[in-house]
Amino acid sequence: MENSSHASFFSLSGLEDETKETRYVLFTATFITYFLIAFINMVLIVTILQEKSLHEPMYIFLGNLCINALYGTIGFYPKFLYDLISENHVISYAGCFLQIFVIYSSVMCDYSILTVMAYDRYVAICKPLQYHCIMTNQTVVKFIIFSWTPPFLLMSIVIFLSQRLTLCGSHIEKLYCENWSIARLSCFSTTVNNAVGYFIIIVYFGHMLSILYSYVKLIRTCFKSAENRRKFVQTCLPHFLALINVSVALLFDLMYSRYGSRDIPKGLRNFLALEFLIIPPILNPVIYGVQLTKVRKKILGGLKESKGVNIP
Q1: From the CB of residue 56, how many other CB atoms can be counted at a distance below 10 Å?
Q2: Residues 6+ apart with CB under 8 A from 71
Q3: What does the pLDDT look like over 116-170, one tens digit per residue?
Q4: Residues 72 and 107 sit within 8 Å (Cβ to Cβ)
Q5: Does residue 14 come out as left (phi exceeding 0), alpha (psi in the -120 to 50 range) or beta?
Q6: Does the CA dihedral 134-138-144-145 come out positive or negative?
Q7: CA angle 147, 100, 33 (to 5 degrees)
Q8: What is the pTM of this model?
Q9: Are strands 171-172 and 9-12 parallel, antiparallel or unpaired?
């Protein structure tokens, strides 16, 4: 296709060489993964909503992290499951940009939420006497707005710029739609798109630096008190693990998208492309559910009550 700027669809790659038997195995594994992501995150969300003792900033932010996981994965898994049982791996023009918007705004939301969670832990441990004065309901609402609004605005700009491109192809070298892959199809310069892309990377790299700065302060404070060390292990360690989880997954995706080579085995390329859509949405709620004592007790208590066991 010489000019796809007005095409009605894009074709996706990655599953052409798979046999029907392999696809059915992948379909089953993907369906189970998606079910686990939905189930684990929903359990945490419902637990936080139902239990008044969990209506605190840290748990409210955790609930937003779980909502974001559901939001981000819905942009990928239903379409991927359909592709596994379909012979034609295509996606509509509008659907492709919608998928880009959902997946990558979700990644930005992850970083924003982790940033406000780091600040919350910093105040709780380093300024405990001022915590309730600083982390008021109004502040929590502002932080939630900060976590969701900028990613949506930035991705709206990205989508607007990409839709203006005149394309010289319609084939995307990936299992799902990605903005960089579309930009590489452009017939002309993508300098503006690249500049905006690097600006967003710098902005969210700044988020990561602010998180690391908070943790430097936290670690210094925690060494001074056994009680603070206990708080750090219980509430900060899962957050730090979640940050590493998301950062490594996103680094894989960025490196593969911009510098990936076709010499890399297809299976590895697909894993690198999907890692941030599989690992963080599962591990983050598990990490928090296991490490945070209040959450763990409420979940286990709910499970026992559902089986008719009295909780002392």
Answers
A1: 18
A2: 102, 106, 109
A3: 988 998 898 888 889 999 999 999 999 999 999 999 999 999 999 999 888 888 8
A4: yes
A5: left
A6: negative
A7: 85
A8: 0.85
A9: parallel
